[in-house]
Amino acid sequence: MPRVSPRDCAVYQGELYSSSGRPPGKLALHREGVPEQVVPIADLDEWYTVRTWGTFLGHEFEIYFEDEDGYGIGVVGTGDGHWLAETWAKPEEHPEVQFQRMDQFTFEATVPKHMVSDIHEVRTDNLGPWRERQENR
């Protein structure tokens, strides 16, 4: 089941990579899940996180994964908590959805694709804030 969100990306010497955990000041770069190299963050052209969002039952959720039948969606402790608790407590109202309440603030579900709309990506810069922190040391 392919992971959709969040996705960390980096551009190094003009090439796009997926990126992951790092030693301090460095970033591991990957292609198709295979580690290629570890580079200093200061040498990156870009470094950002992409999160994919969609609307389910009129509320926005992050899309964590996609398979042939649907999306894995979730939200952690934001938005309309009362609506979330009520909806997850009544799974019989949406039998095609597999609801999971992970804890008091974490709600996840596997949802048929036709029930998710307005799918969009939001990109958050990591490199700019990292550089600002380095300058303020």
Structural description of this entry:
The protein is mainly β and 137 residues long. Helix content is 12%, strand content 53%. It is built from 2 helices and 10 strands; from the N terminus they run βββββββαβββα. The protein has helices at 81-88, 127-135; strands spanning 7-12, 15-20, 26-31, 34-40, 46-56, 59-66, 70-76, 98-101, 106-112, 116-125. Strands 1, 2, 3, 4, 5, 6, 7, 8, 9 and 10 form a 10-stranded antiparallel sheet that branches. Strand 6 and strand 7 (70-76) form a beta hairpin. The radius of gyration is 18 Å and the shape is elongated.
Task: List the keywords.
mainly beta; 2 helices; single chain; 137 residues; ten-stranded antiparallel sheet
Characterize the overall form. elongated
Please bin the fraction of helical residues. Answer: 10-25%
Average pLDDT, to the nearest integer?
A: 90
Q: Got a strand count? A: 10
The whole-angstrom Rg is 18 Å
Unreliable stretches covering 5 or more consecutive residues: none
Could you say which structural class the secondary elements and strand pairing correspond to?
A: mainly beta
Outline the fold blueprint.
Layout: E1 7-12, E2 15-20, E3 26-31, E4 34-40, E5 46-56, E6 59-66, E7 70-76, H1 81-88, E8 98-101, E9 106-112, E10 116-125, H2 127-135
Antiparallel strand pairs: 1-2, 1-5, 2-3, 3-4, 5-6, 5-10, 6-7, 7-9, 8-9
Offer a concise description of the structure:
It is built from 2 helices and 10 strands; from the N terminus they run E-E-E-E-E-E-E-H-E-E-E-H.
